[in-house]
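Hey,

The postdoc asked me to send both predictions to you directly instead of through the lab channel. I've kept everything plain text so nothing gets mangled by the mail client. Protein one:
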Amino acid sequence: MRDYEVLYIVRPDLDDDKVQDAVKRVNTLIERSGGSADHTNLWGKRKLAYEVKHQKEGIYVLEDFKIAPERVPELEAALKITEEVLRHLIVRKQPEKPSPTAVAPPPAEVVLEPVAVESRGAADAPDGDREER
């Protein structure tokens, strides 16, 4: 079982009870696919970037769940035919990487020694390097 999250948009013309029913229906789809819903976050009604199925707004829901990877296409197919859901996106969550406890050593100090720079004036330059005016 792997961790996934699904963000789906529910039709905005539904009242609160029907939205809760739609969330329960998606949870049931996850459980029927052999997964388990962990956390549901209802974001509320928001304006869509573009019109979807003649709707300009939608109710966003983000849900964390666990499911076997081979069952994800089955869940996506079920979400596609759910009437209340306008759009959905399922993504695999990356496992949390432990923060490194070892501190990198500071960079080695570089000591620059002064370098003698020769200054060559017009009088010191060889004949080929002199400018003639």
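Protein two:
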Amino acid sequence: MDLSPLLAVGQTALELGLICSLTVLALFLSYSMLNVCDLSTDGCFTLGAAVGAVVAAAGHPLLSIPAAMIAGMCSGFVTALLQTKLGIDSLLAGIIVNTGLYSVNVAVMSGSSLVNLNKKDTVFTLTKGLLAETPLAGQQNTVVAAIAVLLTVGFLTLFLNTRLGLAIRATGNNPDMVRSSSINPVFTTIVGLCVANAFTGLSGCLMAQSQKQAEINIGSGMVTIALASLLIGATLMGRGTILVRAVGMVVGAFIFRLVYAIALRLEMPGFMLKLVSSVIVALAIALPYLKQQWPIIYRRLSYKQAAARRGES
């Protein structure tokens, strides 16, 4: 039995899952910790991809990473200001920023909808040279993505256990209590969204360089993918420590991408992939409820089967 097709699917899912898990970790910080539903994820992901691609195309692939993260922080800063200083609802603030970022992203790409990196150095091509003649030769995409995820998970675990991180978590749980404790919820919200969007910008940067291009729709649907992955990870890992939950986000991203890759392998039409994403999100949201309701459902089914047997006798 030839296992090479299965291994290829798993490899693709692992690479994309690791890169996308950075966005899932961003949503974990903003949505799960800060209790802010940030809908600017699609535009911020594209912003990170655009800035990273432009800087890499200019001959600075290593500088593209901090540049993309700083661009993501700026996006998060604007979103936070709309919420905290102008009193705009978090959902509307995310939509406004996401809409505005479309024009910003086109401007970053010099009026074009595509930046091609085929003949340019990227962090992946540089790593490929470093890994030559080693057991990891040819695995540069996985290695770079894994290093980025490890650093992000480590930083997030340490950060959320600092005084500032605990203040951010408290802001998400009970902003009134935080306000009465002389902690400024405006400041914690701004810091939380800036850090979260920095992760999203990094994710977009790595995605663009791994695909050797950044196009204006590269972030389309990313908030749906991240939400589904977050819910899958939360269902699997439960409510443990920050480290355990962060690892759950990475596992959730891998599982989502694995299902996605299998759907592509089955030659499912491209227009059906959005439906697949929607079904995965619906199942991920409904799974905790169905798990809670399962004893009741089981008793009802058992009662119906017993009644049917009595009727037959």
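Summary for protein two, as requested: Residues 275-313 form one domain.

Thanks,
C.
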